[in-house]
Amino acid sequence: MKPTIYDIARLAKVSTATVSKVINNNGKISINTRQRVLKIIEELHYQPNVLASAMKGKLTYQIALLIPDMDNPIYAQYLKSIEASGQGFGFSIVLCSTDNDPEKEAKHITLMRQKQVDGFIIASRFKNTRMLEELLKDEVPVVLFAYEKPELLIDSVTVDDYQGGIIATEHLLALGHRRIGVIAEETFSSNERVRGYLTALQNAGIDPVESLIMYSGHKIDEAEATGGRLLDLAERPSAIFGCNDILAVGSMRAARIRGVAIPEELSVVGFDNTVWCKIIHPELTSVAMPVGDLGQKVMEVIVNKIERGQKINQRIRMFPEIKVRATTSNKQ
Amino acid sequence: MKPTIYDIARLAKVSTATVSKVINNNGKISINTRQRVLKIIEELHYQPNVLASAMKGKLTYQIALLIPDMDNPIYAQYLKSIEASGQGFGFSIVLCSTDNDPEKEAKHITLMRQKQVDGFIIASRFKNTRMLEELLKDEVPVVLFAYEKPELLIDSVTVDDYQGGIIATEHLLALGHRRIGVIAEETFSSNERVRGYLTALQNAGIDPVESLIMYSGHKIDEAEATGGRLLDLAERPSAIFGCNDILAVGSMRAARIRGVAIPEELSVVGFDNTVWCKIIHPELTSVAMPVGDLGQKVMEVIVNKIERGQKINQRIRMFPEIKVRATTSNKQ
DNA sequence: ATGAAAGCGCTAACAA
DNA sequence: TTGTTAGCGCTTTCAT
Fold it and tell me: Residues A187-191: what's their mean pLDDT?
């Protein structure tokens, strides 16, 4: 059997209370007793049972991360970043793939609450608003990541998507492009990026053309099809802004199929700056978010809520920056 | 306060024992009592506390997944597949990124044991053999995934890497290639794939050329450099087998830089059949493992160990198959 | 069919 | 400085 605190107490000839104090470094313990207890702990390879301590109102040091799926490489990066900063704060991450399914979202949340996780990080999108409201009502620590829910008073840590849309579009405008297509998804972030695109056009005194704004599913094939529709327009855009790298890469494929040269005949900008940018040819210009900092920040926020019951509500938006690569050039 | 089993018992005018039996569907409970209890549970939105039940010797329904990192897209796929089948079995996955660091491996294992996870799935590589032996000694359920440790009596679920190496090489041989380079990593799987490569050459009556077998780090830049060394050989190979897609894609980049046309002047085969194969141009021929089936299998194995204490040791190897795409063609 | 009660391993208030 | 003890929420044995 695994040794318990009782075994340690017995062998060290002290009470379990003393052992507990030694383990948790609180209360006053004489140096002698402490050493003796520590020695026994060492000898028996004693490991405190986190469950039992959580039962007494302590934390489980587990945070559930709800994320749509791992097919989009940016989600893998989110996960990596959040898990890494979690380690720094002493929290483990329980992964919950939602597949954009509100049912699954609800099941995960229910299950994770039964497992007494200390909080929830919800990444990228979440359909089940009812569930979110319930968490809020029950004062469960929740923070949204790379996602906002303006209608709810709920903390979030995101990149400034609107700003990102502006940056991407201004980059293309500066290269002389006037007819700029955009491919978006039906998500909050995507819409913000489109809003940035419109602002940038307006600032440049260009009237937005509705037919240049297209919506696509999140699979690469759908992106390719949508990019194709943009390229098949009677008056073809000279540049495309994909609201994420998948959408941009899909457009690049559509261009290749049609023999449209990138960047000579078509400039393309993506968003997320995933590794795809560097493996595709030509390398993709993309708007980068500071994923590492975002992960760090979201853990800070949720840990403050968990450990200090911090109630301050905040929407943190960090700045994106554009990584210029080979898919964008002056309009010819 | 969240309702406990006592609240339910009180309101339903039964004992906690009865409530417990209703929740767990065991013992004999009259239909009336059951209904009454269920109704109260419903009304209070009662959620049993998994911690407390785990304290009484039940499971936590959590499995720790140790995985090197998320940068390799195949790991993200592993994770996705394992998490999905975990859901099917009612187990959650706690993610532990090891970064190939034996210290981190050890820290995670210690921590996860304190958190009383029911078992461990260790994916792809694991350096800390001492830790592994300790788990085995303590009879903690562990299964290796996409990784084997021949010197230890430990269960594993993998693809048949040796066979995969044969398949990849035979594909190239069938296309008329004789001088085939290979880029490997210093891992068990990679070595198996190289072994398959050697076997296939031998079967074809070709003497392996030592200088055509190169080892690379796991980053794309390192792969590109190594691919470059292969291409800069006085007598350049007409085909390269990359022991994973990163290595293959790195070679493709090296080829592009040197103006070596793929597949006309160089055929390339990868391994893992990640999404990279479909986004790179030309699309990469790659050996695919049945990731979904592997994930399913590994959960089956570990859940049998956890729930039925199954002791049967087994190494399960599933069959790979090649997905032929555009990077391979007849030697010209 | 139902309930009383012990106890899982730990923490913390209180006593000594 | 150290120990006693009550309980966290649940399961399970043994009575009834």
Answer: 96
Contact present, B269 and B168 (Cβ < 8 Å): yes
Q: Compute CA distances B192 → B68, B189, B219, B250, B318, whole Å.
A: 19, 5, 20, 20, 14
Q: Does the N-terminal peptide bond of residue A68 adopt cis geometry, omega within 30 degrees of 0?
A: no
Same domain, B153 and B301: yes
Q: Go through A246-278 and write b for each residue having 16 or more CB atoms within 10 A of its CB, e for each that does not.
A: bbbbbbbbbbeeeebebbeebbbbbbbbbbbbb
- Please answer yes or no on whether B77 and A70 come within 8 Å at the CB atom: yes
For residues A119-137, give the mean pLDDT. 96
Can you give the pTM of this predicted structure?
0.96
Nucleic acid strand C within 7 Å of B17 CB: yes
> Looking at the 3D structure of chain B, how many domains does it have?
3
Distance from CA of A251 to the nearest CA of B (A): 11
Residue A142, sorted as left (phi over 0), alpha (psi -120 to 50) or beta, turns out to be beta
Q: Which of A4, A42, A50, A220 to mutate to test the interface with B (most CBs of B within 10 A)?
A: A50
Q: Clarify whether residues A285 and A181 are in a common domain.
A: yes
**Amino acid occupying residue A205:** G
- Can you tell me which residue has its alpha carbon closest to the C1' of nucleotide C2? B18
pLDDT digits (tens, 9 = 90+) for A8-44: 999 999 999 999 999 999 888 999 999 999 999 999 9
In this predicted structure, the answer to whether residue A288 has a pLDDT above a threshold of 90 is yes
Q: How far is CA A25 from CA A10, A28, A29, B146, in A?
A: 19, 9, 9, 41
Helix ranges, chain B (H): 5-12, 16-24, 31-44, 50-55, 73-89, 102-114, 129-137, 161-174, 188-203, 220-231, 245-257, 276-279, 291-308
| Of B282, B288, B286, residue with least CA distance to B326 | B282
* B27 vs A297: CA distance, rounded Å: 49
User: B95 and A94: CB-CB below 8 Å?
Assistant: yes
Question: What three-state secondary structure class fits B20?
Answer: helix
- At position A251, the amino acid (one-letter code) is S
pLDDT in tens, A52-88: 999 999 999 999 999 999 999 999 999 999 999 999 9
Looking at the fold, whether A40 and A57 belong to one and the same domain comes out as: no
Q: Is residue B326 assigned to a domain? A: no
Are both A200 and A285 inside the same structural domain?
yes
Q: What is the CATH number of the domain that holds B154?
A: 3.40.50.2300
pLDDT in tens, B236-256: 999 999 999 999 999 999 999
Closest residue to C6 (CA to C1') is B56
Q: What is the DSSP string of A62-91?
A: EEEEEES-SSSHHHHHHHHHHHHHHHHHT-
Best of A56, A70, A130, A220 to disrupt the B interface (most B CBs within 10 Å) is A70
Minimal Cα–Cα distance from B208 to chain A, Å? Answer: 31
Q: Tell me if B251 sits within 8 A of B227, measured CB to CB.
A: yes
Question: Of the candidates A83, A115, A249, which has its C-beta nearest B50's C-beta?
Answer: A115
Instruction: Give the domain extent around B70.
Output: 50-158+293-317
- How do strand B62-67 and strand B321-323 relate by DSSP bridges? unpaired
Q: Which residues of B touch A94 (CB under 8 A)?
A: 62, 92-95
